[in-house]
Amino acid sequence: MHVDDLASPSILVLAPRLEHNLRAMQSACDAAGMELRPHIKTHKLLPIARRQLELGAKGLTCAKLSEAEAMLPSGVREIFLAHSLVDHRQAARIAALCDQLDELRVAVTSEAHAETLITLAAQVGRPLHAMMAIDSGLDREGVRDVASAQRIAARLARAPQVELAGFYTHEGQFYTKPNDQREAGIVRMLTDLRAIRDAIDPALPLWPGSSMTARAIADGHADGVQAVRPGAYVFGDMALSTSTDVMPFADVALEVLATVVDRPTADLALIDAGSKTFSSDRTAAGVSAVAADGRDLSVVRVNEEHGYLRGADVASLQLGERIRFVPAHVCTVVNLTSHVTLIDSDDYVSASWPVDARGCTQ
Ligand SMILES: Cc1ncc(COP(=O)(O)O)c(C=O)c1O
Fold it and tell me: Of the residues 41, 213, 228, which should be mutated to test ligand 1's pocket, given the most ligand atoms within 8 Å of the CB?
């Protein structure tokens, strides 16, 4: 089957680019002597998790328990659950994961959370290995200063059921930093992480590294970094390739195929993909997606099943014309679809993959 025969809208995965992105990140990590522990929240797909592990990923990172459970058939042996676990109702599921893996690491994300995690660990009935979250500027989870980190470390040292196993950060703030400030920001971030780590135990590992920073860390700042955990790099999106210059636009491996369904005015086209396809995530400029072929076509507004298309090239669009788009934020696009369609370099369909961890938010 050719891409032209697919129903619209469809989520396309460009297989050669996907393979390139997976290999490039793994090679960069290998060359730097760092482990790759990719976050699966972007793809939620067993075939991609399997390929990541086959190429050399040391383990996987997941946000939620159900994501980790969904990834078990990949053969993964080490999972880091990078989220604040608090729910005693999850104790049996956490214990089951511990039993099925060689290593399950959990997160400890604040002083308040440390107390809850210690209580939860007693209910799990297995020793838990905890990575301490450090807030490096996103202003989300994580300790804000050395003193707080030291208090958590001291508290865990008195809790036989939770062992401090290292430090991590999610540096999502880099998505909104200008390109020319990224390198200096990475150096500053790593200096701050090392200072907190060294104040507690210089032997403990550091696990920073999102898609915004992982390649730069690998290419010049890997000293003392044991692992990185990028997610979006597998596909890429506008956030990585147009809003910033982390990834070439030509490497973006996921596109949304959509169809022009109306031309209400000369400068507006409507497509059959809206927020139920692109999600409501947009760039800072308010764009949900742009044409993958370089035409001046931007989805500037979405309703559930309509995308509003503007740009100089709207004038030449015909009803029924199909356009391939690069979305603003790829992770939420994958979570909205039941399957993705793999296409080869000649646009022929090579597979249809169910999104194994779709909707796994629990
Ligand atoms: C804790 C954590 N680690 C890793 C990632 C991966 O980041 P990215 O998708 O920017 O590579 C995320 C993304 O939200 C995250 O929240």
Answer: 41
